Amino acid sequence: MSNVANITIDHTKVDADLTDFPIYIDLSDLPDSFWDVVANGGGDIRVYKDDGTTELAREIVSCDTGTKTGEMHLDYDGTLSSSSDITIQIWADGSSSEPASDATYGSENVWGDYEAVSHMNETSGSMVDSTGNGHTGTYQGDLPNTTTGKLSADAQDLDGVGDYVDVTDGGDFDFANGTMQIWVNSQETSEAGQHIFGDRDSNNSNYIQLYSYDPFENTGLLQIRINDGSSSHDMSTSEGSWEDNVWGMAHITWGNSGMEAFLNGSSECTDAYTGNWTSNGDFDIGRTQKFSDASFNGYLQEFRVRDEQLTATWISTEYNNQSSPSTFYTASEPSPATNTTNFFQFF
Q1: What pLDDT is recorded for position 207?
Q2: pLDDT digits (tens, 9 = 90+) for 313-333
Q3: Which of 48, 113, 229, 308 matches a 20 to 30 Å C-alpha distance to 106?
Q4: How many beta carbons lie within 10 A of that of residue 67, not counting itself?
């Protein structure tokens, strides 16, 4: 197995020292030295720190040698520095098999700190939860129906008429401190009730919701609601902050620091809520249960849930990485001195 490409992270795009940060790699950025060796599907890809021996967990979402495209996520074990560049080595041999998903460096261990991660790129079957925690999704309506995504793998195209995803055990998302995030491209922000995801039961008591357009007919914004059974808390981004036909990254965080919403890596609104909402309904992506006729019309990709209130610098660094991977890092061919067989890969 040989070192076939290097990735150097630009520390100026990392907004604080971050621990165990998941890095997105657009494989189309990698040089010919990678594509000349790697197997179709990418099962032979291994990732190391710059010492060439410290292996990192990685998930290959896609890898197409014919089109030289693909998507990979890796867990940078340790500290991703905001003060100095770091280099990651990518190795391949064209023949090694994909490690088991629950192996030490397999796909599930990229997401050890997450409750659910769904790339939403399936062309058939169910929505996969990459964490291994079982929060898979049942596609409803005309789904799965893919389109070009913001990240290099595909996204789901929802038509606003019955398309949604029923998330298995989504009611487990009721933590005291948490974060939910998703990439969104709305085709109809002026249409009332465009529910992106949510959990709201028929009794209208305990719920969490994210949707575009609010009931007071303000357009081009996101509305966030949390209700813990005793109090309801609403907040919304500024009018015009959300546009049709444009990909945007949305985060909701809640916990001891209150409730906060971020658009494209920047804080948009806050609320003093510090309670612990409890799920009573099914969790859906593309609608909420109580408002089943308010389905989302647009494209959705990369849904993540974490049992932790992520920091502003973590969120802004995620946006830097995912919105423009080719400026977050530099991809290069390895120097001849490092392009040698790695004897440590099987131990």
Answers
A1: 63
A2: 999 999 999 999 999 999 999
A3: 308
A4: 9
Shared domain check, 105 and 239: no
Q: What is the pLDDT of residues 128-160, one digit of tens each?
A: 999 999 999 999 999 999 999 999 999 999 998
Inform me whether the pLDDT recorded for 303 exceeds 50: yes
Tokens of 169: 């055990």
Token code pair at residue 107: 């796909």
Residues 39 and 59 in one domain: yes
Is residue 336 reached through a cis peptide bond, with omega within 30 degrees of 0 on the bond before it?
Answer: no
The whole-angstrom separation of Cα 299 and Cα 238 is 22
Residue 261 belongs to domain spanning: 116-307
Q: Are residues 301 and 331 in the same domain?
A: no
286 and 174 inside one domain: yes
Number of structural domains (the chain) is 2
